[in-house]
Specification:
It is a single chain. By secondary structure, the chain is mainly α. The chain has a single domain, classed as LemA-like domain (de novo design (two linked rop proteins), Up-down Bundle), CATH 1.20.1440.20. It is rod-shaped, with a radius of gyration of 25 Å.
């Protein structure tokens, strides 16, 4: 009778350990999937930005024919938004943002362009897209925080190591993006 109780106890203990491992593993998979979903949302808005830029450039081109270098730099930076590693796309995002700031600065010199309905609408859509990109980057970093915390806390860290889960990188601003914006008049 005592042997039966010990076997039952060991069986229940093994079941509980396996049950905990399964729940923790599924939680880690869920957190990793949230990170992937968040990154996909960033891609959605980068694609939207990618699609809006040519329309904006074409609108400006009619007014600012001699600003060809600015327009070309924006289009060149745009080309890297959707392809390459996360770091390469981050660099393309930085270059595109710089180009867009320059493009909007150029537009300041053309009162007719600033009043153009198409330009204003495109500018408004780009600002909304940039705000959305900022929001989904925050969401991505929140997901990475949750995942990385789960990987580091005991006892889920044991299960994470058993199954080869690795920490994810936060989306961080480049040094140039941290600098204060300089406005000259």
């Amino acid at each position: 009778m005592a042997l039966d109780s010990i076997v039952l106890f060991i069986g229940v203990l093994i079941f509980l350990v396996l049950f905990y491992v399964a729940i923790t593993y599924n939680n880690l998979i869920n957190l990793r999937t949230k990170i992937e979903r968040s990154w996909a949302q960033i891609d959605v808005f980068l694609k939207r930005r990618y699609d809006l830029i040519p329309n904006l450039v074409e609108t400006v081109k009619g007014y600012a024919k001699h600003e060809r270098e600015t327009l070309e730099s924006v289009m060149k930076a745009r080309a890297g938004l959707l392809e390459g590693s996360a770091e390469e796309r981050g660099n393309a995002t930085l270059a595109t943002s710089k180009g867009m700031k320059t493009l909007f600065a150029v537009a300041e010199n053309y009162p007719d362009l600033k009043a153009n309905e198409n330009f204003l609408k495109l500018q408004e859509e780009l600002v909304a897209t940039e705000n959305s990109i900022s929001y989904v980057r925050i969401s991505y970093n929140d997901s990475v925080l949750d995942f990385n915390t789960a990987l580091q806390t005991f006892p889920s860290s044991i299960i994470a190591n058993m199954f080869g889960f690795k920490q994810k990188e936060f989306f961080q601003a480049k040094a140039e993006e941290r600098e204060a914006i300089k406005i000259t008049m």
